[in-house]
Every structure is written in C-alpha cells, then in structure tokens.
Amino acid sequence: MEDKQETLKTASKKPRGGGEPIRSIDTYAAQCEKCFKWRVINSSEEYEEIRCKIAEIPFVCDRKPGVSCEDPADIEYDASRVWVIDRPGIPKTPGGFKRSLVLRKDFSKMDAYYITPTGKKLRTLNEVAGFLAANPEYSDVSLSDFTFSVPKVMDDTIPEDVVKKGSASSDAKRKPKTSKGVVGDGTARDEGSVAMH
C-alpha cells in the first residue's frame, strides 16, 4: 500500500478590517481517495481521527453522512487560502491537551505547540516529558502521544505580497505564483490527503 499523506489547509486571508493574515487553522478538510474532491471536516477531533488512521482507512466521500462522490466538492484547492501538507499517522492529541499549529509571519513554516489541561504551552518533547513527570495524574499519557512534526507549506498558495525570509533586500517580494497543480496533477493525491485551512 502506498504511503498516505495529509494535506492541511490554513487560512491566509486578511481580516475584513485589514491587519495581519489569520495564521491558525480555521477549517479542516479531507480529500476523497476515489474522486479526489475535498470534504470539509467538522472538528479538529474528527480531523485528527481521520489523520491518524488515513494509511489504514483511506478517506472517502461516503464517510460523511449523506455525501457521495457525485456531490460537488465542499472546498477547492486554490490560492485563496494557504495550504499545507501534513504527515499521516500523527497521533491524536491526548484528552485534555490541545495541539496548536501556527503559521509563521513569513509563511516559511508552521510551529507546533501543545497546551496542557492547566493552560501551559509546551514547545518541545523535553517540556512535555517534564510536564508529565511533574504531574503524575497524567501517568496514562505517553510521550509518544506527542509530536512536533509540522505540515509543509505549499508555496503555490502563499500570498504574493509575503516578504521572503532571509532575502537579500528587505523589499524583496515573492516571485509571481505559478500553479503546481497539487490536486490536479496528483502530487498530493498520490499519497492521500487530509486538509486544514
């Protein structure tokens, strides 16, 4: 069986009042293995369930009640939002904890954090290990339940006006976008897909 890969979609539209783009997850989606249409997933919990098992249980449209491959896609892959590709098999976030993914201002990558039931933000596995050791009430939670793997940002969906990190000039802007056809040419599909935006 081929490796499965997840596609995460992250919002990059500017808020109506201007200001910074939204850089956290606001919508989850999965791509059907049969028809390759995108289906919006209702919650991060449902998304995590699909993501952790996508290699064994590929996502198909009829997994959503009342939906089939004959129905139009819920959402389309395009540059109106920033899309990112995630790894399959990332474990579900342990109960009481929250996994947070934040897109960097320069759109170079995302950062992963875990928020504990006490509200503490954990940035590394060492911090997680320290928290678990200091809080025996979480002895049923394993360090292997945590990962700081982050999704890959899809360059062809990054806004053109984003300044590149480490550019020779502070005025350097992104090159004009060219569509890589991630969905259309099978690049993301070949390995399966789940998405957030």
Automatic annotation (TrEMBL):
Q: Please give the Pfam families that the UniProt record associates with this protein.
A: MBD (PF01429), zf-CW (PF07496)
Q: Where are the transmembrane segments?
A: none
GO cellular component terms, alphabetically, are: nucleus
Q: Domain MBD, which positions?
A: 83-153
The residue ranges of the CW-type domain are 22-77
Keywords of the record, alphabetical order, are: DNA-binding, Metal-binding, Nucleus, Transcription, Transcription regulation, Zinc, Zinc-finger
**What's a single GO MF annotation on this record?**
DNA binding
Keyword Transcription found = yes
Q: Where is this region: Disordered?
A: 1-23, 159-197
SMART domains in UniProt: MBD
Q: Which Gene3D superfamilies match?
A: Methyl-cpg-binding Protein 2, Chain A (3.30.890.10)
| Annotated Basic and acidic residues bias | 187-197
The places in or outside the cell where this protein is found are: Nucleus
**Identification of the protein by name:** MBD domain-containing protein
